[in-house]
Write a structure and sequence with these properties.
The complex is a heterodimer of chains A (109) and B (499). With 109 residues, chain A is mostly helical. Helix content of chain A is 71%, strand content 0%. In chain B, strands 1-2 form a two-stranded antiparallel ribbon. Chain B has 3 domains: 140 residues; 136 residues; 220 residues, no CATH class. In chain B, helix 2 packs antiparallel against helix 3. With 499 residues, chain B is mostly helical. Chain B is 71% helix and 2% strand. The longest helix of chain B is centred in the middle third of the chain and has 32 residues. The chains are: A mainly alpha (109), B mainly alpha (499). At the A-B interface, helix 2 and helix 3 of A face helix 5 and helix 6 of B.
């Protein structure tokens, strides 16, 4: 098993765990964390693309790495926005952001 | 590899992206009290820029291009306005100007000069949204498009929760979670594409793309992600509460423009990136989901008691029509997709729905402001208090149900013609059924608004300029119906350049 394959399997596993959480966890905070897991898997995939696409003399292709940095900034901003919305919901009287699934504030469709 | 070059007038594209951002920063720097004046100056300049781009594209007969920093793609980033982008830019600018006139009534700073947070937040997000939309229409590589979509989400989500009530915050959070799930799938797809081809530039991809399973998987992930953002059935659950809970000016922009951005991206992935011909099964699946959107959400719209929720469900139904385009174009005899009746009908449906739906949401906002509620059953007397607004609502409704002479009529007739030509009878049946359902839910509202007013009616006065802004949008939706019934040359400008 080459390192690229190993990392690829890790990326796939992260995406799968994140997707599971995003769909099945009813509480919003866990959904936000699951989104970040899928994001991590995706960024890992970009890392593999950088490694495999490296031209002669380079350790890695710099373009996917630049994209990952942008992607991380975007995911960070998205997480900040989601957490800010959660905090405002708490202030507006939501019982809890991470309560048991039977609280009325769950966001499951 | 395709050579790009900056064409004359290319700087206009940079202006289209930068102007709203400059306006946003000016609102931050010059104080919040001047927010709406700065926004109005930006709106005027942005409308002029969009018209200038449209004229430049029409005059030269080819796409207007700008290479940022003079770097060639795939390393550099190109901005390009073809006929379709120019039409979308003008549509965006006109709708935003009308919404701006409308929003001055609900988001102006108080005359005593006190700083308030609501107008400041609204106008900065409004301009941010514009810049993001223009980026989606102009960007030429998959990663810039990802960034543009994220900018769009980050401007749109806070607009939903401007009221700060718990319900709108919930709606905003649900919208954000759906949008984030969509964008992470889109990003996953771009990662796979880069891994396979080493480029993100759409024109380059068009030349080297192969029909292998890795590409199909990547495009499938991207399209599913964009479907969640475009609120295609069954991923539409976030849209009705979000669009109904937002202030009227924001709902109009969200329903008319924001949900169209991911659709245009799907259109580009399908026809510019994917290896042609694309698999018929995938096209039929998208159209099937579109048909489900039309039927299910039209019936949901009929069952709503609140006017804004009804209009929001109608948005999901009308966006469903756009997804009917894929099998219609693939089955047509036309040489290029953009020369077919189905493609033109789809684009016309997009534009006419944008104008009609913006008019409808703004009309609903005025009715709610005048009467103090938006329960459809108790709208009696609305036509007496707000004759212009109710007329605008009815005219916009004509476009949604596809009755002549509205723009929606030509669009749906073209889609119908294309589905008969390509022998997709189930699509023809869906279009007709959707029209009947739309007529039912629009007439239900208009009938209720024309009813006798209750004995003692209390209502707030509405300035005439706001009513006229709504009427102008509805009249544009109507005027689109006078376009000739054939593929337009303008929409094909620059697309032939796609090698």
């Amino acid at each position: 098993m080459t390192p690229a394959t190993l990392y690829g399997i890790c990326a796939a596993a992260l995406v799968a765990i994140g997707l599971f959480g995003l769909i099945l966890h009813p509480t919003p905070l866990r959904k936000v964390i699951s989104f970040n897991l899928i994001g991590s898997g995706t960024f890992l995939l970009f890392g593999i693309a950088a490694r495999r696409g490296a031209a002669a003399g380079f350790l890695g292709d710099p373009i996917p790495q630049a994209m990952v940095i942008t992607g991380i900034v975007v995911a960070f901003a998205a997480t900040a926005l989601a957490v800010a919305l959660l905090l405002r919901m708490l202030e507006a009287g939501a019982p809890t952001v991470d309560g048991s699934p039977d609280t009325p504030d769950d966001l499951s469709p | 590899m395709m050579q790009h070059a900056t064409t004359p007038g290319g700087w206009l594209l940079v202006l289209a992206l930068m102007l709203p951002v400059v306006g946003m920063l000016a609102i931050f720097a010059l104080g919040q009290r001047r927010a709406e004046r700065i926004a109005f100056a930006t709106l005027a300049a942005g409308l002029a820029t969009a018209l200038a781009v449209a004229v430049a594209v029409g005059r030269s007969g080819r796409a207007v291009t700008y290479l940022i920093g003079g770097w060639q793609p795939p390393l550099g980033i190109a901005l390009q306005a073809d006929g379709l982008s120019a039409v979308l830019m003008v549509m965006t600018a006109v709708i935003l100007c009308a919404v701006g006139v409308f929003a001055r009534g609900s988001f102006s700073s108080p005359p005593d000069g006190a700083e308030t947070r609501r107008p400041f937040v609204f106008w900065t997000l409004f301009l941010g949204l514009w810049s993001a939309l223009n980026t989606v229409w102009l960007a030429q590589d998959l990663f810039s498009l990802f960034v543009a979509l994220e900018l769009l989400t980050f401007s749109a989500v806070p607009l939903v929760s401007l009221d700060g009530s718990r319900e709108t915050l919930r709606a905003a959070l649900r919208y954000l979670l759906f949008a984030l799930a969509g964008s992470v799938f889109y990003l996953l797809g771009t990662g796979l594409i880069y891994g396979a081809y080493g480029t993100m530039d759409i024109a380059t991809l068009h030349q080297v793309v192969r029909a292998d399973w890795a590409t199909s998987l990547a495009l499938g992930l991207m399209i599913v992600g964009l479907m969640a953002k475009a609120a295609l059935f069954p991923l539409h659950l976030w849209l009705p509460p979000a669009h109904a809970g937002a202030p009227a000016a924001a709902s109009a922009v969200l329903s008319a423009l924001v949900v169209k951005a991911p659709f245009v991206l799907i259109l580009r992935l399908w026809f510019d990136v994917a290896a042609q011909p694309a698999p018929a099964l995938a096209g039929a699946m998208l159209a099937g989901l579109g048909a489900a959107s039309i039927l299910f959400c039209s019936i949901m719209a009929l069952r709503q008691a609140r006017l804004k929720l009804m209009i929001a469900y109608s948005t999901v139904a009308q966006v469903g029509y756009l997804f009917l385009v894929f099998p219609l174009v693939m089955g047509s005899a036309a040489l290029d997709p953009w020369a077919s009746v189905g493609w033109t009908g789809g684009v016309l449906q997009l534009v006419s729905h944008a104008f009609a739906k913006a008019a409808m949401f703004l009309a609903a906002g005025l009715i709610a402001e005048a009467l103090g509620h938006d329960r459809i059953a108790d709208l009696g007397g609305a036509a007496k208090v707000l004759p212009v607004t109710v007329a605008a609502f009815a005219l916009a409704g004509l476009s949604l149900m596809g009755l002549p002479p509205a723009g929606g009529f030509i669009a749906k007739l073209m889609l119908l013609t294309a589905s008969v030509e390509t022998a997709n009878w189930w699509i023809a049946a869906t279009i007709l059924a959707g029209g009947i359902l739309a007529a039912t839910y629009v007439f239900r509202v208009v009938g209720s608004a024309l009813a006798e007013p209750p004995e003692r009616m209390v209502f707030a006065a509405i300035p005439r300029s706001r009513e006229l802004a709504v009427l102008a949008l509805a009249l544009i939706a109507l005027a689109l119906g006078f376009l000739p019934l054939q593929p337009f040359d303008y929409l094909a400008i620059g697309r032939g350049g796609m090698p």
